[in-house]
């Protein structure tokens, strides 16, 4: 019973979907976790189509945050790479790649963006 309640708690917190919990904890029955949720859980699992928070296609907030953090890190590394490449090109080849704006041009540019 303690094991069942542990699985139910993980699913109801939103850390895993009931199908993900089934895989992670090695539960072989296709609907076993769902039956446990219906019997012992605090949420209404009688209409699984309406409870879209825990469907397999949708991600929990924690999963979304992890994906966004990974995407942000990827973009940060791309920016670092490109900035470094531009710095090298400007230094080694004497190329002017970045446009230098005067203070007046920068002020005008900011106003146009608003």
Question: Would you give an account of this structure?
Answer:
- It is elongated and about 70 Å long.
- The longest helix is centred in the last third of the chain and has 33 residues, at 61-93.
- By secondary structure, it is an all-alpha fold.
- α1 (2-13) crosses α3.
- It has five helices and no strands.
- The protein has helices at 2-13, 18-24, 32-40, 61-93, 103-113.
Task: Provide key terms for this protein.
elongated; 114 residues
SSE map:
Elements: H1 2-13, H2 18-24, H3 32-40, H4 61-93, H5 103-113
Helix pairs in contact: 1-3
Strand segment tally: 0
The outline comes out as elongated
How would a textbook summarize the main sheet?
A: none
What fraction of the residues are assigned to beta strands by DSSP?
A: under 5%
* Parts with pLDDT < 50 across at least 5 consecutive residues: none
The SS-based structural class is: mainly alpha
The number of distinct helices, counting runs of at least 4 residues, comes to 5
Structure in a nutshell:
The chain is mainly alpha-helical and 114 residues long. It contains 5 helices and no strands.
